[in-house]
Design a protein that fits this description.
The protein is of the alpha+beta class. It has 3 helices and 7 strands. The strands form 3 sheets. A 3-stranded mixed beta sheet has the order 1-2-3, with helices on one face. A two-stranded antiparallel ribbon has the order 4-5. It has a two-stranded antiparallel ribbon with strand order 6-7. A hairpin with a 2-residue loop joins strand 1 and strand 2.
């Protein structure tokens, strides 16, 4: 976890779970600013650019791709809580983009500089 993203609640981590021939399985933990599907897609592009033999990148547990976690009552089966797995919209950027009809996954709050450090794009 990088210090600058973590300072605004972005604590997402991607871990390698298994390599099974040309298939790679990852694990997504923590909170991401982008949707988890988008994060997995970007990770797949990164891996495939370095190892063209890879034909499939996925997660072992499909629940890891849900941006919202629903907690159900064991007795009634009713949803009693919905937990947002996304990082906080610390500057309102994501909400503004959605309001304007822009897909937030096409742009994010951070850009990476040449030396690998992250900079926050102010709103």
């Amino acid at each position: 976890v990088h210090d600058v993203p973590a300072s605004v609640g972005i604590t997402g981590e991607i871990s390698l779970v298994e390599v099974a021939g040309p298939e790679v399985y990852l694990s997504l933990n923590g909170k991401f600013w982008h949707s988890r599907n988008h994060v997995l897609g970007r990770a797949a592009m990164y891996l495939n650019a370095r190892m063209p033999e890879i034909i499939h990148v996925s997660v072992m547990d499909p629940d890891e791709l849900n941006d919202m976690e629903e907690i159900y009552d064991d007795d009634t089966g009713e949803c009693i809580e919905i937990i947002d797995r996304r990082a906080p919209d610390y500057n309102g950027d994501r909400a503004t983009m959605k309001y304007q009809g822009i897909d937030p996954d096409m742009r994010g709050p951070f850009v990476s500089s040449l030396n690998g450090e992250f900079k926050i794009i102010p709103s």
